[in-house]
Amino acid sequence: xxxxxxxxxxxxxxxxxxxxxxxxxxxxxxxxxxxxxxxxxxxxxxxxxxxxxxxxxxxxxxxxxxxxxxxxxxxxxxxxxxxxxxxxxxxxxxxxxxxxxxxxxxxxxxxxxxxxxxxxxxxxxxxxxxxxxxxxxxxxxxxxxxxxxxxxxxxxxxxxxxxxxxxxxxxxxxxxxxxxxxxxxxxxxxxxxxxxxxxxxxxxxxxxxxxxxxxxxxxxxxxxxxxxxxxxxxxxxxxxxxxxxxxxxxxxxxxxxxxxxxxxxxxxxxxxxxxxxxxxxxxxxxxxxxxxxxxxxxxxxxxxxxxxxxxxxxxxxxxxxxxxxxxxxxxxxxxxxxxxxxxxxxxxxxxxxxxxxxxxxxxxxxxxxxxxxxxxxxxxxxxxxxxxxxxxxxxxxxxxxxxxxxxxxxxxxxxxxxxxxxxxxxxxxxxxxxxxxxxxxxxxxxxxxxxxxxxxxxxxxxxxxxxxxxxxxxxxxxxxxxxxxxxxxxxxxxxxxxxxxxx
Length: 503
Prior knowledge:
Largest sheet: 8 strands, antiparallel
Shape: flat
Radius of gyration: 27 Å
Structural class: alpha+beta
Number of domains: 3
Order of helices and strands: HHHHHHHHEEEHHHHHEEEEEEEHEH
């Protein structure tokens, strides 16, 4: 390795280390996720695979001369801003992508455009280490339920479905989080991307194979779920539950992946002179003196100033911690103790969970207030929801976005139908962030980041109102509408008062 490469790699090491320093908590969280969640254990392999892919290019790279590429500073700066927004909004995935992006951009800046082109795939492959996909679980669960129920009906078996729960004459079934197929999808997509890169030269063939790597596991998971239900229907429920359930799934998925790669091998292109051409082109690169340390200094300045600004805003937030929620009396409604049902929202600074009655109607009000949000103590997160998929009592059997309120206070809310062995609930939920109502979690996160950067505050709340019903959800919706009309000004007053508390 010549002196020029040694200087370039040393500067790259400094740049990457500087980018990782403000992200030690992010890195620790990511590693814990890889270790604790089977869906994302592939993350441990991504970096070694990327290193091996770069090592395969060592002969080509050794013949090239690093030369800083100044245009790379613009995407690096943009990624630093994106990381800052993710940090202020407590969106872990944005911070993770921002960190990987800065590593990729640092390589472009310090090593130069031609070397970056040679190692671009291994670098972008690093993005697959980010544990993302939980947001797809509800859609995948619904697709699996749709596919299974339709297949059963085509088979001639009568099925009654409600949400992701369905009943056959000889048993009840439900599509839970583990049955969503997310593990199959992520595993297949990761392997498919790697296989396409190593097997094909044509961009079209690569994209087609990657597309099939995403579609096949989704369809295969539907077939798997149908087969398990059929095993339980024909051979008995004891053969389709427990460990057998998991064994059938992974064996079937393994066979599907082998079939996918076997079919893909028929479209493998013949070896061409692509690498040879790249090597010949690389040998023509002329060395010239380049200001590696200047580029590294700029990267360090961007990272450290970004970190300092984030730390400054974090310190401002720590001035205020205590919160008191005092709900005024609601005209026409009598407070009647504590609600028997509580949404799954954790880490709040304060909360209320009350029951109200009037003329035989009953409504439950839940408010969770968040301040100085951090990992595990944030409003919008995959763990905070009305009902978890592992809830032993309640299950979600329907949801929709509806318009509620009136006049200037009209906004969209999220409506959900909940079911248990003891009854049903119709629930409306929405967020309050910096004085605004919204039911969109992405907008809530944006408003939190905006408030932290503009006002040094991240106060936000989750509001849920719910009422029992038997057979008519429209009647329950009317009850919630009446309660919302009477209570919304009082809820807003309570939240505004809490936001003004500076203890």
